[in-house]
TrEMBL record, chain A:
It is a multi-pass membrane protein. NCBIfam families: MlaE family lipid ABC transporter permease subunit (TIGR00056). It comes from the Bacteria. It is found in: Membrane. This is ABC transporter permease. Its main location: membrane. The chain crosses the membrane at residues 46-67, 143-167, 187-210, 231-251. The keyword Transmembrane helix applies. Keywords: Membrane, Transmembrane, Transmembrane helix, Transport. Belongs to the MlaE permease family. It holds the Pfam family MlaE.
Automatic annotation (TrEMBL), chain B:
This is ATP-binding cassette domain-containing protein. The keyword Kinase does not apply. The keyword Cell inner membrane does not apply. Pfam families: ABC_tran. Keywords: ATP-binding, Nucleotide-binding, Transport. It comes from Algoriphagus limi. It comes from the Bacteria. Residues 6-244 form the ABC transporter domain. One of its GO terms (molecular function) is ATP binding.
């Protein structure tokens, strides 16, 4: 990090600052006296309030994926593979990434704007003056809540999107739920679920840490708040793709694909 | 000789090439209202943020209630902050919380859960009564006027019964009548709780009404010091410039 500081380049300085901020998160998270009440409150806001958006998107995703792939599979007489193909694609890749991108948009911008606004109106200073550690109260709770809730949202998105796929199949066919579910579930192994779940934990962490970093270090008044919210979304979305790429490579090396 | 509650010695702080505070020193005594007067950007707010350790100075010593704050760890500093209230220029009310939650917030660090359950309600009501806004207890900050927000921020400062209050431009942006009410409130708090205060201001009425002693901060230094009337009679060109420019 000291090396990054010496390089007079805003990008590397930003990376260095983000690394320092992440380091501080890990130092603060192990200190005693956690803010559990605020953590639960944030889980509610991040999880429950994002669920409807994730749910609707997941349902449409499953439906559209089925409708789009059906003609091609039909051409090869492989219509019966639709449930397994849809479930594999959704579990391994589509549902976790789309959920993370929605969360990057909603949670990342929300946290960035909220903390940014608190910074420029001196509310964070007021917390510090009152003897509360604002980093622990605002940053640690939000990052932990995001890390916990994004995998849960992703799991729910997988279930809803598979159901969406079932409706998609039945728009032009007639497959009963038991058969569809059996075929969708039969194609999956734990090796599909585990990397998917692990990467959403990292997605959640990245979204939380980038959102809080941008908001907590917001400057230059209301203009800065807007910039914090926007850059939080951009950087978090980019990190989701980079982490996904890394996760796929690791899963491949470990023979989980 | 009386011992100061706050003693600042040879404080220096720069932002890049802008040397804001140059060997600045002051002493605040028990029950006293000390006004720091200076032009915008002269470093008044930086000074009180250094005192409460929101900003770290480059050099110098700050002693509050016999404790050198540079030697305190975070926990010790947090405990000391219970004795030093801070009223922000922007009020800094937590806008996602009600007035009650705003006032209860400082208690969570300094009182146990049992103490809060037993005494928080009474403390909140007392602080609101002190500022004459008991009826706003369940309102959100956005529902309050500028003057009311200032009073609520003051109530939040008072809830821990601090020994010293640092006011950062308490009347800026308020109309003359509300400003006068805030000045009277500051005096009544001084009288009731025997608090000492450092008041950052360039509002002449505020300085005249509330200040027992005034320090003029010019060029980062404690340039002139005395009562308001003494400074008004000061013939130094920089002091005259300041008063004539107001």
């Amino acid at each position: 990090m000291a090396l990054l500081d010496k390089i007079n380049n805003p990008f590397f300085q930003e990376v260095g600052d983000l690394a320092r901020f992440t380091g501080r998160f890990f130092r603060e998270v192990v200190k005693p006296k956690q803010e559990w009440e605020e953590f639960i409150n944030q889980c509610y806001w991040i999880g429950y309030k994002t669920f409807s958006l994730v749910g609707i998107t997941a349902f449409i995703m499953g439906l559209v994926l089925t409708i789009q792939t059906r003609p091609t599979l039909l051409e090869f007489g492989a219509e019966s593979f639709i449930p397994s193909m849809v479930s594999l694609a959704l579990v391994r890749e589509i549902a976790p990434v789309i959920t993370a991108l929605i969360c990057a948009g909603k949670i990342g911008s929300g946290i960035g704007a909220e903390l940014g606004s608190m910074r420029v109106t001196e509310q964070i200073d007021a917390m510090e003056v009152s003897g509360t550690n604002p980093f622990k109260y605002l940053v640690v709770t939000r990052v932990l809540a995001s890390t916990v809730m994004v995998p849960i949202l992703s799991s729910l998105a997988i279930a809803i999107s598979i159901y969406g796929g079932y409706l998609g199949v039945n728009l032009k066919g007639d497959v009963n739920w038991s058969l569809y579910w059996y075929q969708a579930y039969d194609a999956l192994i734990y090796g599909d679920f585990i990397p998917s779940m692990v990467k959403t934990i990292f997605f959640g962490f990245a979204i939380g840490i980038v959102g809080t970093y941008k908001g907590y270090n917001s400057q230059k008044g209301t203009e800065g708040v807007g910039r914090s919210a926007t850059t939080a979304v951009i950087v978090a979305s980019l990190l989701v793709f980079i982490l996904d790429l890394v996760a796929v490579q690791i899963a491949d090396v470990l023979g989980l694909t | 000789m009386e011992k100061p509650i706050i003693k600042v010695s040879n404080l220096n702080k720069s932002f890049g090439s802008n040397h804001v505070l140059r060997d600045f020193s002051l002493s605040l005594f028990e029950g006293e209202n000390l006004v720091i007067l200076g032009k915008s950007g002269s470093g008044k707010s930086v000074l009180i943020k250094c005192i409460i350790r929101l900003i770290d100075p480059e050099s110098g010593e700050i002693v509050i209630l016999d404790q050198d704050i540079s030697l305190l760890d975070q926990d010790e500093m947090d405990l000391l902050r219970a004795d030093v209230g801070f009223l922000f220029q922007s009020n800094a009310l937590y806008d996602s919380m009600t007035v009650r939650q705003n006032l209860e917030f400082p208690l969570r660090r300094h009182w146990t859960k049992e103490e809060r359950a037993e005494k928080a309600e009474a403390a909140v009501l007392q602080a609101l009564e002190d500022v004459g806004l008991s009826h706003t207890i369940d309102m959100m900050p956005a529902e309050l006027s500028g003057g009311m927000r200032k009073r609520i921020a003051l109530a939040r400062t008072l809830i821990l019964k601090p020994k010293v209050i640092l006011y950062d431009e308490p009347t800026t942006g308020l109309d003359p009548i509300t400003s006068r009410e805030i000045n009277e409130l500051m005096l009544s708090i001084q009288k009731k709780y025997k608090t000492a205060a450092i008041i950052i201001s360039h509002d002449m009425n505020c300085i005249r009404m509330t200040g027992n002693r005034v320090i003029m901060l010019i060029d980062g230094k404690n340039y002139a010091e005395g009562s308001f009337d003494e400074l008004l009679k000061n013939t130094d060109p920089k002091v005259r410039d300041f008063f004539e420019g107001l």
